[in-house]
Amino acid sequence: MPEGHTIHRLAKSLNILFGDRQLQASSPQGRFAQGAARLDGQVFISSYAHGKHLLAAFAPAADVALDSPAITWLHTHLGLYGAWNFDGDATFVVPEIFEVPDLEVGSRQGLPGIKELGGHSGGSALAGLTVSTRAALTQPEGVAATVGSGKPRPDLKLPQGKLAPGQWQPAPPKGAVRLRLVSKHGVADLSGPTTCELLDLEGVKAVEARLGPDPLAPGKTAEGKATFIANVRRRRRAIGELLMDQSVIAGVGNIYRAESLFRAGISPRRQGANISAQRLGKLWDDNAALLAHGVATGLITTVNSDDVPDPLPPDDPEAGRWYVYHRTGRPCLRCGTPIAGDMMQGRTLFWCPRCQGR
Asked: Which segments constitute the FPG-type domain (predicted)?
């Protein structure tokens, strides 16, 4: 399942590609025919993410305020099998790198890190980009990329021979497409989502009310941190469970759970009520920074540059990006203790028994 940074990145991309444009909407699969009919001919105003949920506003005209009753909200959640697939002409592009936060993580071995990514500029295509949980090229729970031919392109560079505006036409949908959005320059196909529904503003508020604070929510950092601390400290469940509970904190998935707890030195089995507010505040801040880095780069990279092995072990490539995730039995990058793995609520948990002893 994509983690929160992927959906925030998707929202930014949709705003660039479709913002203030009138779209054609259809449901090739037929399961969302009535909803698509309501969106057809509407203007895409903007979209945003709350955790792993995407909310997109449509209206009859571009100048409609977001709190207007004329707004129709599209609410989607990709779940385990959902995907957005994009294609378009040479103008259907987004920046390869969004604004990079001040967080130095990444490998000296050529894997993406702040110093490498910070120097990039210009546009690579979202055309052909698949935001999916299947066959992810850059991370197990993130973004996969293909071009129109279906050939994988991890670098997301604009494919050769991309059609100029006016020459491009959307190809027939592939597979069971729940919702197709088409502009003059590109198409976005949504397949296999857990949720695809239309809401009014009250419905949007109801979705947000059942979710915990999102560390990436603009202008709500202090409020979100305080709510997160309170959410955790009033529960006697393990912090490893609480970080995956979207009503406690929205957007954190299995990778960010494992990595942020390691970076904080907190045992995943420690009860939330027994963790100090100070430590929880630092845990929130670190998740916010790591998620922001993920939005900027499209990658989950958590290892501080000084901790990356040099040279990188050929049989342990994850050591260039992650401290503990998918590294069961490998030596801890800081103390050498074998990384432990176990199940917690149906998901694999990773931690260092020594570095996370409390």
From this structure: 323-357
Please tell me whether residue 100 adopts helix, strand or coil conformation.
Answer: coil
Nearest to 38 by CA among 68, 65, 59: 59
pLDDT of residue 99: 65
Structural domain containing residue 315: 213-351
**pLDDT (0 to 100) of residue 357:** 86
Residue 263, helix vs strand vs coil: helix
Residues 79 and 170 in one domain: yes
Into how many domains does the chain fold? Answer: 2
Domain for residue 293, yes or no? Answer: yes
Which of 352, 348, 322 shows the shortest CA–CA distance to 336? Answer: 352
Q: What is the pLDDT of residues 241-294, one digit of tens each?
A: 999 999 999 999 999 999 999 999 999 999 999 999 999 999 999 999 999 999
Using the predicted structure, report yes or no on whether residue 137 has a pLDDT greater than 50: no
Q: Residue 301: which residues within 8 A CB-CB, separation 6 or more?
A: 105, 106, 107, 111, 112, 113, 293, 294, 321, 322
- List, in order, residues 6 or more apart from 29 with CB less than 8 Å away: 176, 177, 178
